[in-house]
Amino acid sequence: MVRLKQFAQAALTSCVLAGSAHGAGTLAGTNILNRAQVSYTLAGVAESATSNATTLVVAEVLDLNVTLQSATVTVSAGDTNRTLLFRLTNTGNGSEAFPLAVDNLVAGDDFDPLGASTAVFFDTDASGDLSPADLAYSPGINDPALAPDTAVAVLLVNDIPAGLADGVIGRSRLLASAATGTGTPGTSFAGLGSSGTDAVVGANGGQASALGEYQVSEVNVTLTKSATVVGNSGTADPVPGARITYQIIVNVSGSAAASGLVFTDAIPAGTSFTAGSLQLNGVTLTDAADADGGEFQGGASPAVRVALGDLTQAAGAQTVVFTVTIN
Amino acid sequence: MKAKMDWLAGAMLMILATTAVAQDQGCILLKTVAEIEQVTTDERGEQSTQLVPVEKIVPGNEIVYTVSATNICDQAAEHVVIDNPVPEHMNYVANSAIGPGTEVTFSVDGGFNFGKPDALKVANADGGERKAEPAEYTNIRWVMRNPLKPGDVAFARFRAVLE
Fold first, then answer.
1. Domain that includes residue A318, residue range
2. Is residue B3 part of a domain?
3. Nearest to B55 among A25, A36, A56 (CB)
4. Cβ A61–B87 below 8 Å, yes or no?
5. A222: helix, coil or strand?
6. Scanning every residue of chain B, which has its alpha carbon at the shortest distance from the alpha carbon of A41?
7. What's the total number of domains in chain B?
Protein backbone atom coordinates (compact mmCIF):
# COMPACT_ATOMS: atom_id res chain seq x y z
CA MET A 1 0.00 0.00 0.00
CA VAL A 2 1.42 3.27 -1.02
CA ARG A 3 0.51 6.69 0.19
CA LEU A 4 1.79 9.92 -1.24
CA LYS A 5 1.30 13.61 -0.68
CA GLN A 6 1.52 16.44 -3.17
CA PHE A 7 1.60 20.18 -2.79
CA ALA A 8 -0.21 22.55 -5.10
CA GLN A 9 1.68 25.49 -6.54
CA ALA A 10 0.23 28.95 -6.29
CA ALA A 11 1.41 32.07 -8.07
CA LEU A 12 0.92 35.13 -5.90
CA THR A 13 1.70 38.55 -7.23
CA SER A 14 1.29 41.91 -5.59
CA CYS A 15 -0.84 44.58 -7.20
CA VAL A 16 0.25 48.20 -7.05
CA LEU A 17 -2.20 50.91 -7.94
CA ALA A 18 -0.15 53.99 -8.77
CA GLY A 19 -1.35 57.46 -9.55
CA SER A 20 0.84 59.99 -11.31
CA ALA A 21 -0.90 63.22 -12.11
CA HIS A 22 0.80 63.95 -15.40
CA GLY A 23 1.44 60.61 -17.11
CA ALA A 24 -1.72 60.73 -19.19
CA GLY A 25 -1.31 64.39 -20.06
CA THR A 26 -3.12 67.63 -19.33
CA LEU A 27 -6.55 66.99 -17.89
CA ALA A 28 -9.52 67.13 -20.22
CA GLY A 29 -11.42 70.40 -19.92
CA THR A 30 -8.30 72.48 -19.24
CA ASN A 31 -8.22 75.82 -21.07
CA ILE A 32 -4.90 76.70 -22.73
CA LEU A 33 -4.50 80.48 -22.99
CA ASN A 34 -1.95 82.35 -25.06
CA ARG A 35 -1.31 86.06 -25.34
CA ALA A 36 1.56 88.18 -26.74
CA GLN A 37 2.89 91.59 -25.78
CA VAL A 38 4.86 94.18 -27.70
CA SER A 39 6.93 97.13 -26.51
CA TYR A 40 8.27 99.90 -28.75
CA THR A 41 9.10 103.58 -28.79
CA LEU A 42 7.34 106.22 -30.81
CA ALA A 43 9.22 109.48 -31.14
CA GLY A 44 11.21 108.52 -28.06
CA VAL A 45 8.14 107.66 -25.97
CA ALA A 46 7.86 104.13 -24.64
CA GLU A 47 4.64 102.33 -25.60
CA SER A 48 3.29 98.83 -25.26
CA ALA A 49 0.35 96.75 -26.45
CA THR A 50 -1.19 93.41 -25.72
CA SER A 51 -2.66 91.02 -28.24
CA ASN A 52 -5.94 89.17 -28.17
CA ALA A 53 -5.94 85.90 -26.23
CA THR A 54 -6.34 82.52 -27.92
CA THR A 55 -8.11 79.82 -25.94
CA LEU A 56 -7.77 76.14 -26.75
CA VAL A 57 -9.71 73.49 -24.85
CA VAL A 58 -8.15 70.15 -24.01
CA ALA A 59 -10.32 67.25 -25.15
CA GLU A 60 -10.49 63.84 -23.48
CA VAL A 61 -8.37 61.11 -25.03
CA LEU A 62 -9.92 57.66 -24.66
CA ASP A 63 -6.97 55.43 -23.85
CA LEU A 64 -6.34 52.44 -21.59
CA ASN A 65 -4.17 49.42 -21.19
CA VAL A 66 -4.60 45.94 -19.73
CA THR A 67 -1.57 44.01 -18.53
CA LEU A 68 -1.19 40.48 -17.18
CA GLN A 69 0.14 40.33 -13.64
CA SER A 70 0.26 36.52 -13.22
CA ALA A 71 2.96 34.24 -14.51
CA THR A 72 1.69 31.04 -16.18
CA VAL A 73 -0.59 29.39 -13.59
CA THR A 74 0.10 25.69 -13.01
CA VAL A 75 -3.11 23.71 -12.63
CA SER A 76 -4.44 20.16 -12.54
CA ALA A 77 -7.21 18.95 -14.82
CA GLY A 78 -10.52 19.36 -13.00
CA ASP A 79 -9.38 22.27 -10.81
CA THR A 80 -12.00 24.90 -10.04
CA ASN A 81 -11.76 28.64 -9.33
CA ARG A 82 -8.24 29.12 -10.65
CA THR A 83 -7.46 32.82 -11.09
CA LEU A 84 -5.51 35.05 -13.44
CA LEU A 85 -4.57 38.56 -12.24
CA PHE A 86 -4.70 41.59 -14.56
CA ARG A 87 -4.27 45.33 -14.16
CA LEU A 88 -6.43 47.84 -16.03
CA THR A 89 -5.05 51.40 -16.25
CA ASN A 90 -6.75 54.56 -17.51
CA THR A 91 -3.98 56.06 -19.62
CA GLY A 92 -6.26 58.82 -20.95
CA ASN A 93 -6.61 62.32 -19.53
CA GLY A 94 -10.20 62.18 -18.37
CA SER A 95 -12.22 60.06 -15.96
CA GLU A 96 -13.75 57.14 -17.78
CA ALA A 97 -15.68 53.91 -17.17
CA PHE A 98 -14.39 50.70 -18.76
CA PRO A 99 -16.80 47.80 -19.37
CA LEU A 100 -15.03 44.41 -19.15
CA ALA A 101 -15.44 41.17 -21.10
CA VAL A 102 -13.81 37.73 -21.09
CA ASP A 103 -12.91 35.51 -24.03
CA ASN A 104 -12.01 31.90 -23.22
CA LEU A 105 -12.22 30.69 -26.81
CA VAL A 106 -8.75 32.03 -27.62
CA ALA A 107 -7.23 30.43 -30.72
CA GLY A 108 -3.82 28.79 -30.63
CA ASP A 109 -3.99 27.13 -27.21
CA ASP A 110 -4.66 23.48 -26.29
CA PHE A 111 -7.83 23.81 -24.23
CA ASP A 112 -10.47 26.41 -23.35
CA PRO A 113 -10.69 27.37 -19.67
CA LEU A 114 -14.29 27.25 -18.43
CA GLY A 115 -15.51 30.50 -16.91
CA ALA A 116 -16.58 30.05 -13.30
CA SER A 117 -20.19 31.01 -12.52
CA THR A 118 -18.92 34.44 -11.54
CA ALA A 119 -16.01 34.88 -13.90
CA VAL A 120 -14.68 38.35 -13.05
CA PHE A 121 -13.80 39.91 -9.70
CA PHE A 122 -11.97 43.01 -8.59
CA ASP A 123 -9.02 42.18 -6.34
CA THR A 124 -10.51 44.43 -3.69
CA ASP A 125 -8.14 43.40 -0.92
CA ALA A 126 -5.08 43.42 -3.22
CA SER A 127 -4.22 39.88 -2.18
CA GLY A 128 -3.39 38.79 -5.73
CA ASP A 129 -5.89 35.92 -5.60
CA LEU A 130 -9.59 35.36 -5.05
CA SER A 131 -10.65 35.99 -1.46
CA PRO A 132 -13.99 36.63 0.28
CA ALA A 133 -13.42 40.40 0.36
CA ASP A 134 -13.16 40.64 -3.44
CA LEU A 135 -16.06 42.34 -5.20
CA ALA A 136 -17.76 40.52 -8.09
CA TYR A 137 -17.99 42.37 -11.41
CA SER A 138 -21.45 42.85 -12.93
CA PRO A 139 -21.37 44.24 -16.50
CA GLY A 140 -23.14 47.55 -16.74
CA ILE A 141 -23.63 47.68 -12.97
CA ASN A 142 -20.13 48.30 -11.66
CA ASP A 143 -17.97 48.87 -14.74
CA PRO A 144 -14.70 50.15 -13.26
CA ALA A 145 -14.60 53.97 -13.31
CA LEU A 146 -11.06 55.29 -13.22
CA ALA A 147 -9.55 58.76 -12.93
CA PRO A 148 -6.65 59.47 -15.31
CA ASP A 149 -3.46 57.56 -14.49
CA THR A 150 -5.15 55.22 -12.01
CA ALA A 151 -5.55 51.48 -12.20
CA VAL A 152 -7.63 48.61 -10.83
CA ALA A 153 -6.71 44.94 -10.29
CA VAL A 154 -9.03 42.42 -11.96
CA LEU A 155 -9.22 38.64 -11.39
CA LEU A 156 -10.47 36.20 -14.02
CA VAL A 157 -11.80 33.01 -12.44
CA ASN A 158 -11.87 29.78 -14.45
CA ASP A 159 -12.37 26.06 -14.02
CA ILE A 160 -10.02 23.62 -15.73
CA PRO A 161 -11.67 20.85 -17.81
CA ALA A 162 -11.12 17.24 -16.74
CA GLY A 163 -9.13 14.69 -18.69
CA LEU A 164 -6.34 16.98 -19.88
CA ALA A 165 -2.84 15.75 -20.60
CA ASP A 166 0.24 16.90 -18.77
CA GLY A 167 1.71 20.12 -20.22
CA VAL A 168 -1.28 21.45 -22.19
CA ILE A 169 -1.98 25.19 -22.14
CA GLY A 170 -5.28 27.06 -21.97
CA ARG A 171 -5.60 30.84 -22.40
CA SER A 172 -8.13 33.38 -21.22
CA ARG A 173 -8.40 36.98 -22.44
CA LEU A 174 -9.58 40.00 -20.47
CA LEU A 175 -10.93 42.83 -22.66
CA ALA A 176 -11.71 46.38 -21.61
CA SER A 177 -13.06 49.31 -23.60
CA ALA A 178 -13.84 52.97 -23.00
CA ALA A 179 -17.53 53.43 -22.24
CA THR A 180 -17.66 56.78 -24.08
CA GLY A 181 -16.68 55.17 -27.35
CA THR A 182 -14.27 53.08 -29.39
CA GLY A 183 -13.24 53.03 -33.04
CA THR A 184 -10.67 54.44 -35.41
CA PRO A 185 -8.05 56.52 -33.57
CA GLY A 186 -8.95 60.19 -33.85
CA THR A 187 -12.70 59.61 -33.99
CA SER A 188 -14.34 62.43 -32.04
CA PHE A 189 -17.45 62.23 -29.86
CA ALA A 190 -18.61 65.84 -29.58
CA GLY A 191 -19.41 66.92 -26.06
CA LEU A 192 -19.18 63.42 -24.59
CA GLY A 193 -15.81 63.82 -22.91
CA SER A 194 -15.31 64.47 -19.22
CA SER A 195 -15.95 68.11 -18.23
CA GLY A 196 -18.20 68.43 -21.28
CA THR A 197 -15.32 68.46 -23.73
CA ASP A 198 -15.10 66.34 -26.84
CA ALA A 199 -13.82 62.78 -26.44
CA VAL A 200 -11.28 61.56 -28.96
CA VAL A 201 -10.38 57.90 -29.51
CA GLY A 202 -6.71 57.29 -28.71
CA ALA A 203 -4.07 55.26 -30.51
CA ASN A 204 -5.36 51.89 -29.25
CA GLY A 205 -8.86 52.47 -30.59
CA GLY A 206 -10.28 52.95 -27.08
CA GLN A 207 -9.83 49.30 -26.11
CA ALA A 208 -7.19 46.98 -24.75
CA SER A 209 -6.79 43.34 -23.76
CA ALA A 210 -4.29 40.90 -22.35
CA LEU A 211 -3.96 37.10 -22.31
CA GLY A 212 -3.36 34.94 -19.28
CA GLU A 213 -2.59 31.25 -19.40
CA TYR A 214 -2.94 28.05 -17.41
CA GLN A 215 -0.70 25.04 -17.85
CA VAL A 216 -1.66 21.55 -16.73
CA SER A 217 1.04 19.88 -14.72
CA GLU A 218 0.34 16.34 -13.57
CA VAL A 219 2.50 13.77 -11.88
CA ASN A 220 1.97 10.05 -12.15
CA VAL A 221 3.47 7.50 -9.74
CA THR A 222 3.62 3.84 -10.71
CA LEU A 223 4.76 0.89 -8.66
CA THR A 224 6.02 -2.37 -10.04
CA LYS A 225 6.36 -5.17 -7.49
CA SER A 226 8.01 -8.54 -7.93
CA ALA A 227 8.85 -11.33 -5.54
CA THR A 228 11.60 -13.93 -5.54
CA VAL A 229 11.35 -17.06 -3.35
CA VAL A 230 14.52 -18.79 -2.15
CA GLY A 231 14.08 -22.01 -0.20
CA ASN A 232 16.59 -23.40 2.32
CA SER A 233 17.74 -25.92 -0.19
CA GLY A 234 18.04 -23.33 -2.91
CA THR A 235 14.72 -24.20 -4.54
CA ALA A 236 11.91 -21.76 -5.18
CA ASP A 237 9.28 -23.57 -3.10
CA PRO A 238 7.35 -21.26 -0.79
CA VAL A 239 7.59 -23.46 2.28
CA PRO A 240 8.10 -22.52 5.92
CA GLY A 241 11.62 -21.24 6.35
CA ALA A 242 11.89 -20.10 2.77
CA ARG A 243 12.71 -16.48 2.17
CA ILE A 244 10.81 -14.10 -0.10
CA THR A 245 12.60 -11.06 -1.40
CA TYR A 246 10.32 -8.30 -2.60
CA GLN A 247 11.45 -5.67 -5.05
CA ILE A 248 9.31 -2.57 -5.68
CA ILE A 249 10.26 -0.10 -8.39
CA VAL A 250 8.74 3.37 -7.92
CA ASN A 251 8.51 5.40 -11.14
CA VAL A 252 7.51 9.09 -11.32
CA SER A 253 6.45 10.61 -14.66
CA GLY A 254 4.98 13.93 -15.73
CA SER A 255 6.02 17.51 -15.31
CA ALA A 256 5.02 17.97 -11.69
CA ALA A 257 6.84 16.72 -8.60
CA ALA A 258 5.50 14.14 -6.20
CA SER A 259 6.28 15.92 -2.98
CA GLY A 260 6.96 14.11 0.23
CA LEU A 261 6.51 10.67 -1.28
CA VAL A 262 6.40 7.88 1.30
CA PHE A 263 6.42 4.17 0.38
CA THR A 264 4.75 1.81 2.85
CA ASP A 265 4.28 -1.93 2.41
CA ALA A 266 2.73 -4.36 4.87
CA ILE A 267 4.60 -7.53 5.86
CA PRO A 268 2.37 -10.33 4.50
CA ALA A 269 0.50 -12.37 7.08
CA GLY A 270 2.32 -15.62 7.89
CA THR A 271 5.74 -14.11 7.28
CA SER A 272 8.31 -12.31 9.39
CA PHE A 273 10.46 -9.39 8.32
CA THR A 274 14.14 -10.21 7.99
CA ALA A 275 15.99 -7.67 10.11
CA GLY A 276 18.37 -5.45 8.21
CA SER A 277 17.03 -6.47 4.80
CA LEU A 278 15.48 -3.11 3.87
CA GLN A 279 17.32 -1.42 1.01
CA LEU A 280 16.78 1.68 -1.15
CA ASN A 281 18.62 1.74 -4.47
CA GLY A 282 21.06 -0.89 -3.17
CA VAL A 283 21.83 0.91 0.09
CA THR A 284 20.81 -0.85 3.34
CA LEU A 285 18.49 1.24 5.57
CA THR A 286 18.47 0.60 9.32
CA ASP A 287 15.34 -0.96 10.83
CA ALA A 288 15.10 1.83 13.42
CA ALA A 289 13.34 5.10 12.69
CA ASP A 290 16.30 7.40 12.13
CA ALA A 291 17.75 9.83 9.66
CA ASP A 292 18.14 7.37 6.77
CA GLY A 293 14.44 7.54 5.98
CA GLY A 294 13.74 3.80 6.18
CA GLU A 295 12.30 1.79 9.04
CA PHE A 296 10.63 -1.45 9.98
CA GLN A 297 7.47 -0.86 12.00
CA GLY A 298 6.67 -3.82 14.26
CA GLY A 299 3.49 -4.45 16.25
CA ALA A 300 0.09 -5.78 15.24
CA SER A 301 0.39 -4.64 11.61
CA PRO A 302 4.06 -4.83 10.75
CA ALA A 303 5.24 -2.85 7.72
CA VAL A 304 8.29 -1.36 6.08
CA ARG A 305 8.32 2.38 5.46
CA VAL A 306 10.68 4.37 3.21
CA ALA A 307 10.54 8.17 2.88
CA LEU A 308 11.41 8.94 -0.76
CA GLY A 309 11.28 12.74 -0.50
CA ASP A 310 10.31 14.98 -3.45
CA LEU A 311 10.58 13.02 -6.69
CA THR A 312 10.44 14.23 -10.26
CA GLN A 313 10.71 12.32 -13.49
CA ALA A 314 14.36 13.33 -13.65
CA ALA A 315 15.16 11.47 -10.43
CA GLY A 316 14.69 8.14 -12.17
CA ALA A 317 13.40 4.86 -10.83
CA GLN A 318 13.64 4.22 -7.09
CA THR A 319 14.07 0.57 -6.06
CA VAL A 320 13.00 -0.69 -2.62
CA VAL A 321 13.97 -4.21 -1.57
CA PHE A 322 13.15 -6.17 1.59
CA THR A 323 13.04 -9.80 2.61
CA VAL A 324 10.63 -11.82 4.76
CA THR A 325 10.76 -15.39 6.00
CA ILE A 326 7.76 -17.65 5.69
CA ASN A 327 6.72 -18.68 9.18
CA MET B 1 -16.13 134.49 -42.90
CA LYS B 2 -17.91 132.80 -40.04
CA ALA B 3 -18.47 129.66 -42.11
CA LYS B 4 -14.79 129.41 -42.97
CA MET B 5 -13.78 129.75 -39.33
CA ASP B 6 -16.40 127.16 -38.37
CA TRP B 7 -14.84 124.84 -40.91
CA LEU B 8 -11.37 125.45 -39.46
CA ALA B 9 -12.57 124.90 -35.92
CA GLY B 10 -14.28 121.70 -37.00
CA ALA B 11 -11.14 120.49 -38.79
CA MET B 12 -8.96 121.22 -35.78
CA LEU B 13 -11.39 119.37 -33.54
CA MET B 14 -11.25 116.42 -35.91
CA ILE B 15 -7.46 116.39 -35.93
CA LEU B 16 -7.34 116.54 -32.16
CA ALA B 17 -9.93 113.80 -31.91
CA THR B 18 -8.06 111.58 -34.38
CA THR B 19 -4.77 112.06 -32.55
CA ALA B 20 -6.45 111.26 -29.24
CA VAL B 21 -7.95 108.05 -30.67
CA ALA B 22 -4.59 107.03 -32.19
CA GLN B 23 -2.82 107.43 -28.84
CA ASP B 24 -5.52 105.37 -27.02
CA GLN B 25 -5.18 102.33 -29.23
CA GLY B 26 -1.47 102.62 -29.80
CA CYS B 27 0.46 102.47 -33.02
CA ILE B 28 1.02 98.73 -33.10
CA LEU B 29 -1.92 96.40 -33.53
CA LEU B 30 -0.91 93.05 -32.07
CA LYS B 31 -2.75 89.89 -33.03
CA THR B 32 -2.12 86.23 -32.31
CA VAL B 33 -3.59 83.06 -33.77
CA ALA B 34 -3.31 79.40 -32.76
CA GLU B 35 -3.16 76.90 -35.60
CA ILE B 36 -2.32 73.28 -36.20
CA GLU B 37 -0.73 71.59 -39.19
CA GLN B 38 -3.04 69.53 -41.33
CA VAL B 39 -1.74 67.08 -43.89
CA THR B 40 -3.88 66.54 -46.93
CA THR B 41 -3.38 64.01 -49.69
CA ASP B 42 -4.66 64.87 -53.14
CA GLU B 43 -6.01 62.56 -55.83
CA ARG B 44 -2.50 61.84 -57.07
CA GLY B 45 -1.38 60.74 -53.61
CA GLU B 46 0.75 63.83 -53.05
CA GLN B 47 0.75 65.23 -49.57
CA SER B 48 0.72 68.86 -48.60
CA THR B 49 0.57 70.51 -45.22
CA GLN B 50 -1.22 73.68 -44.29
CA LEU B 51 -1.99 75.55 -41.12
CA VAL B 52 -5.61 75.52 -40.03
CA PRO B 53 -7.38 77.12 -37.07
CA VAL B 54 -7.80 74.85 -34.03
CA GLU B 55 -9.95 74.96 -30.90
CA LYS B 56 -9.86 71.49 -29.32
CA ILE B 57 -6.57 69.76 -28.74
CA VAL B 58 -5.27 66.62 -27.05
CA PRO B 59 -1.98 65.93 -25.25
CA GLY B 60 0.82 65.61 -27.79
CA ASN B 61 -0.65 68.07 -30.28
CA GLU B 62 1.84 70.62 -31.65
CA ILE B 63 0.32 74.10 -31.92
CA VAL B 64 1.72 76.85 -34.16
CA TYR B 65 1.32 80.31 -32.64
CA THR B 66 1.75 83.26 -35.00
CA VAL B 67 1.95 86.86 -33.77
CA SER B 68 1.58 89.80 -36.13
CA ALA B 69 2.48 93.40 -35.24
CA THR B 70 1.07 96.03 -37.62
CA ASN B 71 2.12 99.68 -37.49
CA ILE B 72 -1.18 101.53 -37.90
CA CYS B 73 0.27 105.02 -37.43
CA ASP B 74 2.17 107.37 -39.71
CA GLN B 75 5.38 107.27 -37.67
CA ALA B 76 7.94 104.50 -37.48
CA ALA B 77 7.93 102.38 -34.31
CA GLU B 78 11.43 101.79 -32.99
CA HIS B 79 12.97 99.21 -30.64
CA VAL B 80 10.08 96.85 -31.28
CA VAL B 81 10.18 93.84 -28.96
CA ILE B 82 7.58 91.08 -29.01
CA ASP B 83 7.28 88.93 -25.87
CA ASN B 84 5.32 85.69 -25.59
CA PRO B 85 5.18 83.54 -22.45
CA VAL B 86 5.10 79.83 -23.31
CA PRO B 87 1.50 78.82 -22.46
CA GLU B 88 0.96 76.82 -19.30
CA HIS B 89 0.78 73.02 -19.89
CA MET B 90 2.80 73.44 -23.07
CA ASN B 91 6.43 72.82 -23.94
CA TYR B 92 8.34 74.99 -26.41
CA VAL B 93 9.51 73.08 -29.47
CA ALA B 94 13.28 73.47 -30.00
CA ASN B 95 14.33 75.73 -32.87
CA SER B 96 10.75 76.62 -33.73
CA ALA B 97 10.84 80.36 -32.93
CA ILE B 98 11.23 82.43 -36.11
CA GLY B 99 10.66 86.05 -37.08
CA PRO B 100 12.02 87.81 -40.15
CA GLY B 101 14.33 90.62 -39.15
CA THR B 102 14.36 89.68 -35.48
CA GLU B 103 16.82 88.28 -32.97
CA VAL B 104 15.26 85.60 -30.78
CA THR B 105 16.14 84.96 -27.14
CA PHE B 106 14.52 82.92 -24.38
CA SER B 107 13.96 83.03 -20.65
CA VAL B 108 13.89 80.16 -18.15
CA ASP B 109 13.00 82.34 -15.14
CA GLY B 110 9.58 83.64 -16.08
CA GLY B 111 10.73 86.56 -18.21
CA PHE B 112 13.27 88.32 -15.99
CA ASN B 113 16.39 87.32 -17.93
CA PHE B 114 16.69 86.49 -21.60
CA GLY B 115 19.50 84.82 -23.50
CA LYS B 116 20.49 82.52 -26.32
CA PRO B 117 19.98 78.74 -25.77
CA ASP B 118 23.66 78.13 -24.93
CA ALA B 119 23.51 80.73 -22.16
CA LEU B 120 20.39 79.40 -20.43
CA LYS B 121 21.08 77.38 -17.31
CA VAL B 122 18.93 75.61 -14.78
CA ALA B 123 19.82 74.15 -11.40
CA ASN B 124 20.78 70.49 -11.16
CA ALA B 125 19.48 68.13 -8.49
CA ASP B 126 22.98 67.97 -6.98
CA GLY B 127 23.30 71.75 -6.70
CA GLY B 128 25.20 72.33 -9.93
CA GLU B 129 24.01 73.87 -13.18
CA ARG B 130 23.21 72.44 -16.57
CA LYS B 131 22.06 73.80 -19.92
CA ALA B 132 18.29 74.29 -19.99
CA GLU B 133 16.18 72.06 -22.20
CA PRO B 134 13.94 73.88 -24.71
CA ALA B 135 10.94 72.35 -22.95
CA GLU B 136 12.01 74.37 -19.89
CA TYR B 137 11.85 77.77 -21.60
CA THR B 138 9.23 80.00 -19.99
CA ASN B 139 9.24 83.02 -22.36
CA ILE B 140 10.25 83.87 -25.93
CA ARG B 141 11.39 87.31 -27.11
CA TRP B 142 11.78 88.69 -30.63
CA VAL B 143 13.78 91.91 -30.90
CA MET B 144 13.35 93.67 -34.25
CA ARG B 145 16.64 94.85 -35.71
CA ASN B 146 15.04 97.71 -37.65
CA PRO B 147 12.17 100.08 -36.96
CA LEU B 148 8.69 99.05 -38.06
CA LYS B 149 7.62 101.51 -40.71
CA PRO B 150 4.05 102.77 -40.99
CA GLY B 151 1.81 100.15 -42.58
CA ASP B 152 4.39 97.36 -42.23
CA VAL B 153 3.67 94.06 -40.44
CA ALA B 154 6.20 92.09 -38.39
CA PHE B 155 5.67 88.38 -37.82
CA ALA B 156 6.80 86.16 -35.01
CA ARG B 157 6.03 82.47 -34.78
CA PHE B 158 6.76 79.56 -32.45
CA ARG B 159 5.51 76.02 -31.80
CA ALA B 160 4.62 74.35 -28.54
CA VAL B 161 3.42 70.85 -27.65
CA LEU B 162 0.58 70.19 -25.22
CA GLU B 163 1.69 68.07 -22.25
1. 219-326
2. no
3. A56
4. no
5. strand
6. B78
7. 1
